[in-house]
């Protein structure tokens, strides 16, 4: 689920701007570069990162409307389209990006691109953009929620399938994912009945906890990567390579979801939901999973493509949502 403030200004004037959360992450990366955690402080940060991931997924469990996702399965064709886009089409395109190594992407940055392609959809931004574009908001809520529910298990499995040793899924990794991600998420779901109203009343506080948790994980990841020599491996050309790869990946999925949903006979409102839910990738889910599955000095490089993709999808989503809204107004609100 995307955490940053959405760059929106009403249905007619959706605009894009720098995601404040991404700006905060940039500052954390600068801090990790200048003052990386070493020795005892590194151990302290590592423990803090572990706790942050547990807390983050517990809150995700409290927040995610599982009942709505399950009840929404009646529209199974739409949900199937979103899941296929997220967990089949995206990974296949990510795997095809291997052809760009090494002339566009370095091997480790390719791992990052492949990793982001296995992640589930966002919830917050998918729903917001679908709403602005006059799409099927109810279907977007269900589809994005279902994607996140399944993604907690599917994403690590897809990483292991497509990346082999680079994304190993050993017994140790499985137990770490279970303890840090699945167990707290399930606990949050079980307590959702009582805690969801509390979380809703104190959304500003839980948002700070969400963002703070991710920032702790990012600082821990980049501290280890800085000590491991990340800036010797990350040149301006490699950064541009990641930007190009992210843009092309997003553009291809947008075209496939747009044309595919139209060819399959979905209504205009359902097409919009499929386009936005099927093209988004969750930074909130991705960073913690990467921290568990790619622990080590290369973690910073692994999550770097995802951090850039996060901002790109927000900008593109705002532009598309505004365009869909204008077309709907010109058509008189019809489907």
UniProtKB/TrEMBL annotation:
Keyword flag Magnesium: no
PANTHER family in alphabetical order: SODIUM_BILE ACID COTRANSPORTER 7 (PTHR18640:SF5), SOLUTE CARRIER FAMILY 10 MEMBER 7 (PTHR18640)
InterPro entries for this protein: Na+/solute_symporter_sf, Put_Na-Bile_cotransptr
Pfam families referenced in this protein's UniProt entry, alphabetically: SBF_like
Chain ranges passing through the membrane: 21-41, 47-66, 78-97, 109-130, 137-163, 169-191, 212-231, 237-258
Keyword list, A-Z: Membrane, Transmembrane, Transmembrane helix
A Gene Ontology term for the protein's cellular component: plasma membrane
Keyword Transmembrane: yes
Name of this protein: Bile acid:sodium symporter
């Amino acid at each position: 689920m995307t955490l940053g403030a959405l760059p929106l200004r009403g249905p007619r004037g959706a605009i894009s701007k720098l995601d404040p959360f991404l700006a905060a992450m940039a500052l954390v990366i600068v801090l990790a570069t200048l003052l990386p955690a070493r020795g005892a402080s590194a151990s302290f940060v590592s423990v803090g990162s572990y706790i942050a991931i547990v807390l983050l997924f517990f809150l995700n469990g409290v927040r995610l409307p599982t009942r709505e996702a399950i009840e929404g399965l009646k529209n199974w064709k739409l949900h199937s389209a979103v899941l296929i886009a997220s967990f089949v089409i995206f990974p296949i395109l990510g795997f095809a990006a291997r052809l760009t190594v090494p002339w566009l992407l370095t091997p480790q940055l390719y791992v990052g691109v492949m990793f982001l392609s296995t992640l589930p959809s966002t919830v917050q931004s998918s729903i917001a953009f679908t709403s602005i574009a006059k799409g099927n908001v109810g279907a977007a809520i269900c589809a994005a929620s279902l994607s996140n529910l399944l993604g907690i298990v599917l994403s690590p499995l897809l990483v292991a399938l497509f990346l082999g040793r680079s994304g190993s899924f050993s017994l140790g990794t499985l137990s770490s994912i279970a303890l840090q991600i699945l167990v707290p998420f399930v606990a949050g779901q079980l307590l959702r009945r009582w805690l969801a109203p509390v979380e809703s009343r104190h959304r500003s506080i839980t948002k700070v906890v969400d963002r703070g948790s991710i920032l702790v994980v990012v600082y821990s990841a980049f501290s280890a990567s800085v000590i491991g020599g990340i800036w010797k491996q990350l040149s301006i050309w490699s950064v541009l390579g990641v930007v190009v790869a992210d843009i092309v990946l997003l553009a291809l999925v947008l075209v496939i979801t747009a044309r595919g949903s139209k060819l399959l006979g979905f209504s205009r409102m359902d097409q919009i939901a499929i386009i936005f839910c099927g093209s988004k990738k969750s930074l909130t889910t991705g960073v913690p999973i990467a921290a568990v599955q790619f622990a080590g000095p290369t973690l910073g490089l692994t999550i770097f493509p995802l951090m850039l993709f996060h901002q790109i999808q927000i900008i593109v989503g705002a532009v598309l949502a505004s365009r869909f809204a204008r077309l709907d107004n010109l058509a008189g609100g019809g489907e």
